[in-house]
Amino acid sequence: xxxxxxxxxxxxxxxxxxxxxxxxxxxxxxxxxxxxxxxxxxxxxxxxxxxxxxxxxxxxxxxxxxxxxxxxxxxxx
Length: 77
Description:
Order of helices and strands: EHEHEHE
Strand order of the largest sheet: 1-2
Distance between the termini: 30 Å
Number of domains: 1
Radius of gyration: 13 Å
CATH topology: Rossmann fold
Number of strands: 4
């Protein structure tokens, strides 16, 4: 928990150690985008992550949600 809120994460695989140590909860990317108030993207730029977030993903987010892209610009198109 961070600041009294639940912290969700998405990764290619579930990280049980992180879940135990940091009380974070794994979510499918689509669900994470739908329920989150803040989404922080921290991925390397690869063929797999280029365009990871596009119009379709942005439409799934709450209108009040904030997207923070700490990755390369091409991850969000």
